[in-house]
Amino acid sequence: MKDLIIAIGLIMFIEGLLLAMFPSRIKNMLRIIEKMSQKKLRNSGIFFVITGFLIVWYVKN
To answer: Cβ(41)–Cβ(33) under 8 Å?
Structure first.
């Protein structure tokens, strides 16, 4: 449980840092994402979920 809380904190830290450093680029990325198809977004999400899981699994083992 402690690892999960740390992971959530790191995600919030990184996202906040990116928003603070590159607000205009984030807005541009959101416009691009808005134009993408749902299938492409879903496939990207699945890719990142699997990649993130594999990274965590590799580091923990």
So the answer is: yes
Two structure tokens written together for 7: 């992971």
In angstroms, the CA 33 to CA 17 distance is 20
- Residue range 2-60, pLDDT digits in tens: 888 999 999 999 999 999 999 999 999 999 999 999 999 999 999 999 999 999 899 98
Report the distance separating Cα 59 and Cα 42, nearest Å.
26
Number of H helices and E strands in the chain, helices first, is 3, 0
- Dihedral over alpha carbons 10, 16, 17, 21 (to 10 degrees): 160
**How many other CB atoms are found less than 10 A from the CB of residue 8?**
10
* Model pTM score: 0.70
Backbone dihedral angles phi then psi of residue 12, each to the nearest 5 degrees:
-65, -40
